[in-house]
Amino acid sequence: MRNESLSTRLSTLSLAVLIGVSASVALAPTAAMAKSKPEAKTAPAAEADKSKAETAKDAGKDAGKDSGKAEQLGSYGDWAAYAAGGGKDKTCYALGQPKDRQPKAKLKDTTAYIFITTRPGENIRNEIAINLGYATKDGSAAAAEIDGEAYELITKGQNAWVKEQPKEKEFVGALRGGSKLVIKASSAKGTATVDVYSLKGLSDALARVAQECK
């Protein structure tokens, strides 16, 4: 539910990221996904009052042991579509990784990704979550640019979301029609970062997600 605490929503988030040699994006998340993102706030202080969430971890070494690992539905350009679970608990999502990360020297050992989730059992469609791969200052500002169009983000732990929830639908629409997404954020230590995502194939990946999780 969208009014759950951030801690509850992210406590089960665990993604196994497997990068194939020949694939531009080869991602295999586990079935244990976040139930929802945090409720949008305009005041960072409101976010800071929430308990610290458990954040996504690279669980690639355990992926082969995880019987609940999500099934890849297809690969579309620089994105892939996945499904996990069944019945009212079924979850589908599109997932992509950045094509470039700066500064490379500081981010070379980190993994970032975006997943766009649909959970029909909870009447949730195309929910955005961004994992930055490093700790941020909770409640700090970040930004997304889609072909030059700017959107405000807010951070918690290693994650970021669209700051104003009503703008999420607009954000997803811009992603569908865009060619490049740029995420600008800062680590808890003050290091400014820039992640560049290709949006090639995202529209097809989302269409596959919608087909699977009607």
Physical arrangement of strands within the biggest beta sheet: 1-2-3-5-6-9-8-7-10-11-4
Specify Rg, calculated over alpha carbons: 16 Å
Indicate the structural class: alpha+beta
**N- to C-terminal separation?**
19 Å
Query: Strand percentage, roughly?
Result: 25-35%
Main sheet characteristics? 11 strands, antiparallel
Q: Taking all residues together, what is the mean pLDDT?
A: 77
Q: How many DSSP H or I helices?
A: 5
Poorly predicted regions: 1-36, 39-67
CATH superfamily descriptor: Invasion associated locus B (IalB) protein
How would you describe what is shown here?
With 214 residues, the protein is an alpha+beta fold. It has one domain: Immunoglobulin-like, CATH 2.60.40. It is 16% helix and 32% strand. It contains 5 helices and 11 strands; from the N terminus they run H-H-E-E-E-E-H-E-E-E-E-E-H-E-E-H. The chain has helices at 6-10, 44-48, 104-107, 168-177, 202-212; strands spanning 71-76, 79-84, 91-96, 100-102, 113-119, 124-131, 141-146, 149-156, 159-162, 180-186, 192-198. An 11-stranded antiparallel β-sheet has the order 1-2-3-5-6-9-8-7-10-11-4. The radius of gyration is 16 Å and the shape is globular.
Quick rundown:
The chain is of the alpha+beta class. 16% of the residues lie in helices and 32% in strands. Strands 1-2-3-5-6-9-8-7-10-11-4 form an eleven-stranded antiparallel sheet.
Short descriptors:
single chain, 214 residues, alpha+beta, Immunoglobulin-like, eleven-stranded antiparallel sheet, 5 helices, 11 strands, 16% helix, 32% strand, globular
